Fold:
Amino acid sequence: MAGVARTSRRSVSMAVTLDVVDAQEERFARAFAAGDIFEARDLYCPDVVYLSPTTRLFGRPPRIEGVEDTLAFIQLTIGECRNIGYRLDERAVLPGGRAAYARILFDWDAGDTRLRSSYVVVYRYRQGRISRQELYYDPNGPLEQLGGPVPPG
Structure:
């Protein structure tokens, strides 16, 4: 058609920036602190793909598809965690601006012990939302013990 510019799917995608990653990780921190990952639902595409070695610890397949199943699985993994602290340690936007890397420090109380899990997440984006979330860590590695629990508040 004359006079109508064709827009490719690629040009519609928003470039990821460090500000976007920071804001996203702040949202995750608030949701984890509240113990309700569903508070971060709008960060995800409806057809998100979630990949994590944690799935095998819960007898689940390594690939989870869809926002509801992804959030339900993440919620399951934090069900016994108390006083969650979720902190972005380092991050980068990957070449091409459609993916980001984040290293996370995830602290929680388990009984009278404060524990830490450190892991890496690779996020892939489509139209400004997470379309794929890949977690990397050693699920058999020991958790770091930080000491006694942190008082709430």
Notes: The longest helix spans residues 18-34. The chain has one domain: 13-146. Residues 29 and 152 are 15 Å apart (CA to CA).
